[in-house]
């Protein structure tokens, strides 16, 4: 692995973007940005940047890139090198300024059995075999959660820790590659995470670093993100890849992936979709309800104060009425856990809010917190790390946050979480 520095032209372009960067605090330097080249033994037909994501309750989307034209085919089975099934999908590409992507392949495979390891190859390339494990159809279920991942030395440390956690599904609340217009960094990011994203489903939503809008040459935001990270939005009746929902563990857990950088007011398509999606949920069958956003609604760090306030004012009441249990956010490059909260006050019937924008970004940590610490803020620390949310049964889950301390994984915060639907004091809120 080598290091690459951003050229002055990329820095200038980035300054032109409205990414909501805050200049009111000092970010300490992070580790250098990594540049992950293609392996030397690859050719134009070699599958690269392989990652998988959930589609419905028993299917998986396989996404990969080849430099040259190759079949959009996945062969798979439950034994290594023995492929009993095959599926064919589609291929696309995109251009961004002077950059043209490779061939982006998208194939949905299934039906698949739960808690099963599948071996697969892409584009019928027998030289490269991958494998993934499907999530269980019932509890317990473990989520790994990491935001603002980037591709630095700290990112690599976080990924190694994630790889040892034996999670079932990874949730990423925005800011993936930090390409920021420099499109080859998307390819480098895909290679960096491939060993992990090809073996467990990664479910993501967009952050401000995915906008990549540069009028008048590039006037459409999220071009690279939408091309490379297609999520199952259509399965949940969403009309946009920027917000969607999905079920896991046989429908016991419902996850809302919301878009902080698309319209969210009460007249917007996202708001109307969210209201309809929540109204479909039977909480007797789906006791756990989680939500992911990028810009946090609650934040006691000096960084990005108020960035999520408009979205909070628009959507918080909906999440409160339908008893969303936990809201995970990124954006602020630190860790912070709040108590259950609603409308800026402690509320035992509101969601627990967690900011986990500390995956390993190149901008450094947000290490200045407001003083005194607000009553609703329980634990906060400016360190890189990741979180794990273990849903033990229909009423209880265990949340842990693992800091990177000199590359050693240290569990620094933990709490047991009880579903709101099981608490009699919250029964007067709207539910089905």
From TrEMBL:
Domain Purple acid phosphatase C-terminal: 350-410
Enzyme Commission number, as recorded: 3.1.3.2
Domain of life, per lineage: Eukaryota
Keywords in alphabetical order: Glycoprotein, Hydrolase, Signal
Example of a GO MF term: metal ion binding
The Purple acid phosphatase N-terminal domain, residue ranges: 47-134
Signal peptide segment: 1-24
Chain ranges of the Calcineurin-like phosphoesterase domain: 141-335
Gene3D superfamilies xref list: 3.60.21.10, Purple acid phosphatase-like, N-terminal
Swiss-Prot/TrEMBL catalytic activity: a phosphate monoester + H2O = an alcohol + phosphate
InterPro entries: Calcineurin-like_PHP (IPR004843), Metallo-depent_PP-like (IPR029052), MPP_PAP (IPR041792), PAPs-like (IPR039331), PAPs_C (IPR025733), PAPs_N (IPR015914), Purple_acid_Pase-like_N (IPR008963)
Pfam families (alphabetical): Metallophos, Metallophos_C, Pur_ac_phosph_N
Similarity comment: Belongs to the metallophosphoesterase superfamily. Purple acid phosphatase family.
Protein name: Purple acid phosphatase
Origin species: Dioscorea cayennensis subsp. rotundata (White Guinea yam)
């Amino acid at each position: 692995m080598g290091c690459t520095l951003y050229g002055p032209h990329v820095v200038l372009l980035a300054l032109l973007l409205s990414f909501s960067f805050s200049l009111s605090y000092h970010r300490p330097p992070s580790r250098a940005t990594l540049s992950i080249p293609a392996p030397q033994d690859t050719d134009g037909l070699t599958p690269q940047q392989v990652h998988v994501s959930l589609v419905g309750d028993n299917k998986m989307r396989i996404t990969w890139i080849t430099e040259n034209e190759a079949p959009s085919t996945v062969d798979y089975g439950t034994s290594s090198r023995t492929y009993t099934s095959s599926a064919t999908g589609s291929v696309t590409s995109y251009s961004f300024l002077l950059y043209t992507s490779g061939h982006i392949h998208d194939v949905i495979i299934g039906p698949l059995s739960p808690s099963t390891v599948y071996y697969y190859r892409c584009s019928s390339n027998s030289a490269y075999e991958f494998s993934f494990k499907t999530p269980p159809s019932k509890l317990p279920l473990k989520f790994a959660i990491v935001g603002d991942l980037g591709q630095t030395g700290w990112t690599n440390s976080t990924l190694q820790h994630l790889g040892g956690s034996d999670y079932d599904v990874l949730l990423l609340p925005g800011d993936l590659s930090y390409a920021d217009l420099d499109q080859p960094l998307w390819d480098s990011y895909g290679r960096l995470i491939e060993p992990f994203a090809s073996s467990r489903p990664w479910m993501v939503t967009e952050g401000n670093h995915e906008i990549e809008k540069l009028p008048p040459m590039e006037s459409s935001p999220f071009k690279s993100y939408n091309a490379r990270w297609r999520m199952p939005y259509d399965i949940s009746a969403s009309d946009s890849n920027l917000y969607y929902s999905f079920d896991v563990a046989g429908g016991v857990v419902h996850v809302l992936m919301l878009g902080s950088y698309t319209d969210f007011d009460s007249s917007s398509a996202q708001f109307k979709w969210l209201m309809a999606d929540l109204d479909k949920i039977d909480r007797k069958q789906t006791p756990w309800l989680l939500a992911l956003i990028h810009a946090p609604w609650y934040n006691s760090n000096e960084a990005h104060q108020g960035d999520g306030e408009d979205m909070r004012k628009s959507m918080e009441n909906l999440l409160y009425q339908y008893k969303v249990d936990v809201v995970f956010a990124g954006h602020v490059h630190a860790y912070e856990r709040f108590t259950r909260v609603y409308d800026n006050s402690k509320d035992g019937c509101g969601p627990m809010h967690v900011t986990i924008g500390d995956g390993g970004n190149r901008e450094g940590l947000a290490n200045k917190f407001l003083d005194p610490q607000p009553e609703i803020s329980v634990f906060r620390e400016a360190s890189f790390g990741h979180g794990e949310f273990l849903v033990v049964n229909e009423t209880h889950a265990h949340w842990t946050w693992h800091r990177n301390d000199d590359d050693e994984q240290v569990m620094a915060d933990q709490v047991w979480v009880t579903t709101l639907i099981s608490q009699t004091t919250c029964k007067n809120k709207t539910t089905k």
